[in-house]
Amino acid sequence: MQIRVLSFLFLVLTTLAIGPLFGQVDTGAIQGTVKDQSGAVVPGVRVTLTNEGTGLSLVTTSGPDGAYIFTPIKSGTYMVAAEFTGFQKVEHRNVVVQVQQRVVVDLTLLPGLLTQTVEVTSAATALQTQDASVGQTVGRQEVNDLPLNGRNYTFLAQISAGVTFGQQDTRGENSTGNFAANGTRPAQNDYLLDGIDNNSNLYDFLNGTNYVVRPPVRYPHNRC
Fold first, then answer.
1. Which of 66, 96, 110, 174 has the fewest CB atoms in 10 Å of its CB?
2. Domains of the chain, with CATH numbers?
3. How would residue 173 be classed by pLDDT, with cut points 50, 70 and 90?
4. What DSSP designation does 47 have?
């Protein structure tokens, strides 16, 4: 009986000790500062984020420093709108968010009525200085148009900035999409499939790969 009780307690403690599992990193963020025409920050502004593809909206409020942030959000195209009493409503459309990208959208409020709307068409800040992580999304057109050896999705990684072929060897790794990213070794690549670890703990000498499952290139949640 004591052994059973101890085993049960160990199971409970082990379950509670498990931290949150991190899924696939396919998200980004939109952040910025709300100011008035003079350049002073405006706190308490209602900021709405709308996915232009799905119509799904999120709402937040600018802080004491006028800053707001939406994170994490799926990659896609968004509209950012700001509303505050005594000012015209501001809408910033066509804000594109890619994987692991933090897009800065600063909003300027002009005096007027909420029934008046100012639509901003200028592009969001392209240079990302808030996060050192780098990510790139390969779109549907690239997947359909680019020739892939054996339709292997890992070859798509080689068209990203900072990615090159792996070192030549006798194992034939390069023929299976092996690559080196930003100076790291190919063995340090991390393959995820729907947020699940898709790495081979032991190198697959038969197939010359470091991953376990190779889904079709059109599978929606490949990431490496």
1. 110
2. 27-120 (2.60.40.1120), 140-223 (no CATH)
3. low
4. E
pTM assigned to the model: 0.59
Tell me the one-letter amino acid at 132.
A
Judging by beta carbons within 10 Å of its beta carbon (0-12, 13-18, 19+), is residue 152 exposed, middle or buried? Answer: middle
Q: Which has more confidence, 139 or 63?
A: 63
Distances (CA, A) of 88 to 41, 72, 91, 105: 16, 28, 10, 17
Which two structure tokens, joined as six digits, stand for 211?
């991953």
Structure tokens at 118: 């100012």
Q: What's the DSSP call for residue 177?
A: T
Quick check: bond before 72 cis, omega within 30? yes
d(CA 100, CA 50): 19
The C-alpha atoms of residue 153 and residue 164 are separated, in whole angstroms, by 15
Q: How far is CA 207 from CA 154, 165, 214, in A?
A: 14, 17, 11
CA 169 to chain centre: 33
